[in-house]
Amino acid sequence: MPVNKRPSFVNFPIPFDHPYTIPTLVATVGASALLYYSLQASHKADLKEAIRQQVVEKRRHLKRKEDKFASLKIEKQYVNPFKEWKTQNVSVMDSLCLWLGLYNNNQILKDIPIVKPRTDLIKTENTFTWLGQSTCIFSIEGLRILTDPVFDHDKRLRPSPCLMQDLKGLIDIVLVSHQHFDHLDEKAVIQFGNDVTWYIPLGLREWFVKRGVENVIELDWWQEIHHKGRPDILIACIPSMHESRSTTFDKDESLWCSFVLKSKRDRIFFCGDTGYVPELFQSIRDLYAPFTLAAIPIGTFEPQSVFKSLYMSPQEAAKAHTDLGNPALSVGIHWGTFINSNENFQHISDINSTSRFITTCFGETLII
Questions:
Q1: What residue stretches are annotated with the Metallo-beta-lactamase domain (predicted)?
Q2: Residue 23: its pLDDT value, please?
């Protein structure tokens, strides 16, 4: 009698009729696939970091800072060409605490004054106004320049001192340092649209065009341009040590930066998010100082195990002020607006060891 050699689940050693068998197999295969792709991603990240370090070492003896700190792309992703950069090896505990918001309990302050910006002064004088986080208005030689516009975001701790509608028709130029949610808001882009000229780092133009905004100029690090119709106004895109991805699964496909604004009378430094790189700030000083005003970020620096390479503490910001050649006035920005980290902003006055580095109220307008 012929033997039936077809496979049968009845004789198979795994008990497929058990209710937990299939879920267990699915979980095992899924975990194995996750482990495989995790190891692959880790290997790619290690290889990219090795290449980055090789480039940094090769550039170490270059005399021109524009060459030493030129933007760097590896495998279609931007990376930091600074020896100070350390890839964040965030522990499981830190990741869990960040995700649960347990590192955010010290930032909620209720006694920071909010005042309405002096639009009368902004229209007629050279001024600086901080609106929260890195959103600022610089008024220089009749031009009004807005930076990193974020106004009514639902994650703000406190409201903006003014509405976007209040600035409609007032702003000529918008500078964007990078695409993180607290620096680039889609609603603001659509609101200001093509009525203003947007200066952005490399890799962001397509994002704007998809939203119908084409009055956009992409700049690489150290690239300079005169604003259209204003040969007396120079805008320079300056390096910073940061990243543009928002999650572990994102890629750094667009650049990040700071900006220098230069007129016949004033030189302004708007510092985007950055870790502390002494030689970089000294290079900016050598190329563009003396500065009338510097807006320097002082928040989102704790825990250091997570944020050391990405942001500066108030003490590091004070060192950056010195490295920049001691601007006539530096103002601390990027604090007290969003819950992103664990530092206690009651200690933000640590930077006030010199009257030339101050903090202001939200919306306070300074004549410069």
A1: 144-335
A2: 77
